[in-house]
Fold this protein.
Amino acid sequence: MLGQVFRIDDLAVVAVLVGLEALLSADNALVLAIMARRLPKKLQKKALLYGLGGAFIFRLIAIVLAGTILRLWWLQGIGALYLVLLAGKHLAGSEDEIKAKEQTGGFWKTVIAIEIADIAFAIDSVLAGVAMVKHTEKLWVVYTGAMIGIILLRLASLAFIRLLHLYPFLEKVAYLLVGWVGVELGFLCAHNYSLLNRPDQVLTEMSPLVFWGGMGIIGIGGSILAVVRREKPSAEEMREEALVEEVFGSNG
C-alpha cells in the first residue's frame, strides 16, 4: 500500500464506504452475538475482541490482494458480476438467512467461527470499496472506510440493528448502491479490456458525474422512501435486539 495519495474529495468516498460497511454488516452483528453467546460471559468480550482484531488483519490482506483487481480487466469483470448478482439476490429476497446454531463450543472454536463469518461478510464491502477507488494509490481509502465501519459496528451494533428494524428499506438501499458500484466496475472492465485489445476503439469509463449522481439519487431517494415506509419492530426483532444488547452491550 505504498505510494498512496490523498485528495480532499477522498473523504467523501470514505464516508460512503463507512455507511455501506455499517448497513451491510449490521445484521452480521446478530450472527456474531449468537456465536459469542455460546461462551461464558467473561469470555464473550475476549472472543469478540479477537474477532475484531482478525477483521482488521483480514481486511488489510484482502484489500492489498484486491489491488490486483485494479490491474486485471477479467478480475474486474468477475467482481462486477458478483456485486450485481449479490444486489439482485438480496433485492429479490431470495437470500437464505444465515443462522448460527445454539450450541456450546470451546473458546478457540468460537473465535475461529467468528473469523470465518467475518471473511464471508467482508467480500462484498471490500469489492465495493476497491471498485469505487479504481486506482491502487487509493487503497488507503478502502481500508480506512472499512476499519471505521468495523469499529462503529462494534461500538454501535445495537443502534444499527434498531435502525434497520425501524427502516428495513435501508438494507435494500445499501444493496442498490452495491449494484450500482458493480455497474461502474463493469464499465471499468470494458474500458480496460478495450484499452488492451482494441486500442483503436477504446470504450469510455463511467463519468464521475454519472456515478456520483446515481449514488446520490439512490441514497437520498431510498432514504426518503425508507422513512415513509417506516415499520414498528416485530416481537422477533425485539428479541434479536435484546440478544445483541446482552452480548455486545454488557461487554462494552
